[in-house]
């Protein structure tokens, strides 16, 4: 890792390429504990951009932020036995306070349903208290010891988890779908990553949910990545945690609930989907630095004039864009070009002695490397349009990849041939036995059962289909893939 720049090709050694990019671009470093990472300032600034965008949408839709402790008593986790059982293999336990053994084990939060809902049972008394719509920006800890990948699968991760309480099933259903649509907007309009929306299968749903809605993306190595989920919990938690309210007729009712979350794996997805052999490529809408200005001068004669123009351009841009002036004198312009390309800055501005004399600036796009010389008077408009074009071009490129690597299979042989290369759409009878057999034999599982484009609340299928595995009449069309 001591060599400068990325030393492997993305399409040849994808796993090694990914590790080199996240480390060498200064996003993160490894922690001294296996499965944990340190998010460095540059990586954290990308998370802050995503957080800022998501937080604004959450608040616009009536959600409020709050804080929860990290430790959860084992007795609380056991209240919803099925849910707890699903997380048991991943739980870190605290057993001592100093030298004293605790009377009850405490779990380091794998997810917050049980803790939040014990508290919600005290907050909800009447229909007037509903809906309760709370979000937590925090970390979760899950013991991912065997298979880890920075930002994609780690033992502690930054995320947000929303938890809501409603008076009716219909309100909970609307909430679950609303949050999925907000996530989809963030992923496609800001991260420039197309996703497929739909349901998880019964086997793959969140433990304790009535059903799970998911957004799935395809990575360049043909593997799927779950980008975000939204769960309709029904009354599966309100009953064991006694979350009840008096309705308008003074009758006691159990509440209906949802939970939903996204994590810093979104940053990992951006690296994978958009990066190239030079390093990161960040979509302008989430880039902490959208524009870097690099002065080019030779000796002291041109230095003052070039730096003066660079500072003037910086002053003109800084109120409209996230811009950085790299005026470090200990590095050559060539070194700076490579450094900022590795970090994925969407647009580079080069200013040299000739540009000063001609009243121009050279603009270089990170996504395709195209270079254009622009007059000072049109600089603002050209930059605005160019950043938007970069954003849309990245999405279009990712969408083309998704479409080109989404296959349909009507036979199991076709299925097996395609599954190494991306999503495979296939009919499925609904049997968990077929689902498990396919997983065992091909490594692929059901990533998403897509919504019908004509009726977003229904699963898309055709009656005449036959299950890809057993040949029986199918009830669903599903997207299968190997996944992270």
From TrEMBL:
Q: Which PROSITE patterns does its entry note?
A: AA_TRNA_LIGASE_II (PS50862)
State if Membrane is listed as a keyword: no
One Pfam family matching this protein: HGTP_anticodon
UniProt keyword annotations, A-Z: Aminoacyl-tRNA synthetase, ATP-binding, Cytoplasm, Ligase, Nucleotide-binding, Protein biosynthesis
What Gene Ontology cellular-component terms does the record carry? aminoacyl-tRNA synthetase multienzyme complex; cytoplasm
In its UniProt record, a GO molecular function of this protein is: ATP binding
> Which E.C. number(s) belong to this protein?
6.1.1.15
The organism sits in which domain of life?
A: Archaea
Residues forming the Aminoacyl-transfer RNA synthetases class-II family profile domain are: 35-283
SUPFAM superfamilies according to UniProt: C-terminal domain of ProRS, Class II aaRS ABD-related, Class II aaRS and biotin synthetases
Q: Which GO terms describe its biological process?
A: prolyl-tRNA aminoacylation
Q: Any idea where this protein resides?
A: Cytoplasm
Catalysed reaction, written as an equation: tRNA(Pro) + L-proline + ATP = L-prolyl-tRNA(Pro) + AMP + diphosphate
Q: Which family does it belong to?
A: Belongs to the class-II aminoacyl-tRNA synthetase family. ProS type 3 subfamily.
Question: Domain note for this entry?
Answer: Consists of three domains: the N-terminal catalytic domain, the anticodon-binding domain and the C-terminal extension.
Subunit: Homodimer.
Which HAMAP family does this chain map to? Pro_tRNA_synth_type3
Functional summary from the UniProt entry: Catalyzes the attachment of proline to tRNA(Pro) in a two-step reaction: proline is first activated by ATP to form Pro-AMP and then transferred to the acceptor end of tRNA(Pro).
Write the protein's name: Proline--tRNA ligase
Chain's gene name: proS
């Amino acid at each position: 890792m001591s060599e400068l720049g990325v030393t492997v090709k993305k399409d040849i050694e994808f796993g090694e390429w990914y590790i080199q990019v996240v480390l060498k671009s200064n996003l993160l470093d490894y922690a001294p504990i296996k499965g944990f990472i340190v998010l460095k300032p540059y990586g954290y600034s990308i998370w802050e951009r995503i957080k800022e965008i998501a937080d604004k949408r959450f608040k616009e839709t009536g959600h409020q932020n709050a804080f929860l402790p990290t430790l959860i008593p084992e007795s609380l986790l056991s209240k919803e036995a099925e849910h707890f059982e699903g997380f048991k293999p991943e739980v870190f336990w605290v057993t001592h306070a100093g030298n004293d053994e605790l009377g009850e084990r405490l779990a380091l939060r794998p997810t917050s349903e049980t803790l939040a809902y014990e508290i919600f049972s005290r907050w909800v008394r009447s229909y007037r208290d509903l809906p309760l719509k709370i979000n937590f920006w925090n970390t979760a800890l899950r013991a991912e010891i065997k298979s880890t990948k920075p930002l994609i699968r780690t033992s502690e991760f930054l995320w947000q988890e929303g938890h809501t309480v409603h008076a009716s099933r219909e309100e909970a259903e609307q909430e679950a779908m609303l949050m999925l649509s907000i996530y989809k907007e963030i992923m496609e309009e800001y991260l420039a990553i197309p996703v497929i929306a739909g349901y998880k299968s019964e086997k793959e749903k969140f433990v304790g949910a009535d059903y799970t809605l998911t957004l799935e993306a395809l990575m360049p190595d043909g593997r799927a990545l779950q980008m975000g989920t939204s769960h309709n919990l029904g009354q599966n938690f309100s009953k064991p945690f006694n979350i009840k309210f008096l309705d308008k007729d003074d009758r006691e009712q159990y509440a209906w609930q949802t939970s939903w979350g996204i994590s810093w794996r979104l940053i990992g997805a951006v690296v994978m989907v958009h990066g190239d052999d030079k390093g990161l490529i960040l979509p302008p809408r989430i880039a902490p630095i959208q524009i870097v200005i690099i002065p080019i001068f030779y000796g002291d004669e041109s230095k003052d004039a070039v730096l003066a123009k660079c500072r003037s351009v910086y002053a003109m841009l800084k109120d409209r864009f996230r811009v950085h002036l790299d005026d470090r004198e200990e590095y050559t312009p060539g070194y700076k070009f490579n450094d900022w390309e590795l970090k994925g800055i969407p647009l580079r501005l080069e200013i040299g002695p000739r540009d000063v004399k001609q009243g121009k600036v050279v603009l270089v796009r990170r996504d395709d490397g195209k270079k254009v010389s622009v007059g000072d008077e049109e600089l603002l408009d050209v930059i605005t349009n160019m950043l938007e074009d970069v954003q849309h071009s990245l999405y279009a490129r990712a969408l083309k990849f998704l479409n080109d690597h989404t296959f349909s299979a009507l036979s199991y042989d076709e299925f097996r041939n395609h599954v190494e290369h991306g999503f495979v759409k296939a009919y499925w009878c609904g049997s968990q036995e077929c689902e498990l057999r396919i997983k065992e034999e091909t490594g692929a599982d059901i990533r998403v059962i897509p919504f019908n484009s004509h009726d977003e609340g229904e699963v898309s299928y055709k009656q005449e289909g036959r299950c890809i595995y057993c040949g029986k009449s199918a009830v669903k069309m599903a997207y299968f893939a190997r996944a992270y």
